[in-house]
Write a structure and sequence with these properties.
The protein is of the alpha+beta class and 107 residues long. 47% of the residues lie in helices and 16% in strands. Strands 1-3-2 form a three-stranded antiparallel β-sheet.
Length: 107
């Protein structure tokens, strides 16, 4: 027990770089949940809009909901993940309504 405490104290004295810094990881590349969807079609449409715009994203729990849609509410829905640095652009794209995504016709 004493040896374990001594070892822990020695490790705490060492100033090691954070794992993210060591690998050159940019914190803005961290994935975040942008939105949650109860139904698969709305999640797939949102993902396809972002994919088409060149924003990397992925859906989580879509396969579970595909097997049994009743699980959607229990699991917190289908989660749309994007990089933290892309959240603003992604939110702007997804907030556009279907009318503003038409071929440019004025109303």
């Amino acid at each position: 027990m004493v040896a374990a405490r001594q070892q822990l104290e020695e490790w705490q004295k060492l100033e090691l770089p954070a794992p993210d810094e060591e690998r050159g990881f940019d914190p803005k590349d961290r994935p975040v949940v942008l939105r949650r969807y109860r139904d698969m079609p709305t999640g797939f449409v949102a993902k396809s809009v972002l994919d088409n715009a060149g924003i990397e994203c992925f859906l989580q729990d879509d396969n579970v909901v595909r097997m049994d849609w009743l699980w959607s509410n229990a699991m917190g829905g289908i989660k749309l993940w994007v990089r933290e640095k892309d959240t603003k652009d992604a939110e702007e794209l997804l907030s556009l309504g279907p009318a503003s995504q038409t071929s440019g016709e004025e109303q």
